[in-house]
Amino acid sequence: MIIENHPFQVNQKGHLEIGGLDTTLLAEKYGTPLYVYDVSIIRENARAFTGTFKDLGVKGRVAYASKAFSSIAMLQVMKQEGLCLDVVSEGELFTALKSGFPEERIHMHGNNKSYHEIFMAIEHNIGCIVIDNFYEIELISAILEKQQKEIDVLMRVTPGIESKTHQYIMTGNEDSKFGFNLQNGQAEKAFNILHNHKSIRFKGLHCHIGSQIFETDRFELATDVLFKELSEWRKKYDYTPDVLNLGGGFGIRYTKEDEPIPYQNYVEALVQTVEEHVSEQGISMPEIWIEPGRSIVGNSGITLYTIGAMKEIPGIRTYISVDGGMTDNLRPALYGAKYEAVIANKAVDPVTEKVSVAGKCCESGDMLIWDLPVPNVENSDILAVFSTGAYGYSMANHYNRFPKAAVVFVENGSDKLVVQRESYQDMVKNDLSYE
Ligand SMILES: Cc1ncc(COP(=O)(O)O)c(C=O)c1O
Ligand SMILES: N[C@@H](CCCC[NH3+])C(=O)O
After folding, report:
1. What's this model's pTM, rounded to 2 decimal places?
2. What CATH number labels 9-38+298-427?
3. What is the ipTM of this complex?
4. Which residues are annotated as a binding site?
5. Does residue 33 have a cis peptide bond before it, meaning omega lies within 30 degrees of 0?
């Protein structure tokens, strides 16, 4: 039997399966909370993007936004799929290098890159730095001079477009901490510095309008805004871009209210919009780069929890508490994000009640799901929350000194531990005594 809205099945015992394996056995083997990824879904998602560029015969790059989930094993899967990689910090870059990711396929982002981060990126000859601000231009110039090198860069611009998503994850609006503003002339000023720079190879523009976006129209609108500016720069400076990076942000299904469109549609819409502008302006087609994070890993991951305490407040609600919460999934507390879940060991049992799933942190706001329909729930049942593959582990934290959970990859019926569960010893390893 197939689970509604999610790419998983139920086995003959009535247990939820992932990648051909019984989730209750995975929970028993590795403990809970446990993040489990079906790697075949990750590959399928990645190929939906790369395959569309191939089918359209358009030169493109798909850079996995590793902020969605960065670990050595995950980046090795991205490498195997031939993707490029977006990193936003020295830590993400370090992980990429440790995973053996080809340096020339790494792109570096960040709205406040440190001297150190830029130094490391240039030292490792990464493929591209996406410049965000004037201070960064100064830092890069000084480091290139010191290392006697050149580097490819893109310039991040904010097109002044509000995407239809949560306010915290909009990035392309005018009032944004990211990038150079197109409206007030900052972008043109930066362009003049970059275009004429002796050791910066200015390849083009970058724009990312936000995350968890379901329509193609805002992406098309943002592309229109870029071409309006580019048309000016062509007339004034005889400049045409080699590359346009149109960001990530493609939406996935968390609950039945979400209606994601096929990933192919985003690539097709972006390519078509760029082609129209290119032919109108009579210039050559730039390479189109995109940076999906959530859409590559989000629906491939689930989190398994063990249900513990339950509290019924007659006439109000029943709380069931799990052995994780906002420490392994901050999204409900931070964005009011919604999730769906099943009792993994009773995946086909008839629904009898609604319960609300609480985490075990000392915060009333530590609620994972409100009003979840479930069969008769008992202590020690296993709860499986869907679509936790993106921004789960990567935003995990140590509140209340809960150790970070383990991560397991499954593919073709076999399982492999890829991130160990943290120990209490790990938790205190940087603490020093004051006695
Ligand atoms: C610059 C940039 N690129 C790519 C992404 C990836 O976004 P998503 O995970 O929604 O695809 C983000 C996050 O919003 C981002 O800020
Ligand atoms: N962390 C966010 C997305 C941030 C995107 C990065 N700019 C989320 O969970 O939805």
Report:
1. 0.97
2. 2.40.37.10
3. 0.98
4. 249, 291-294, 331, 335, 363, 391
5. yes
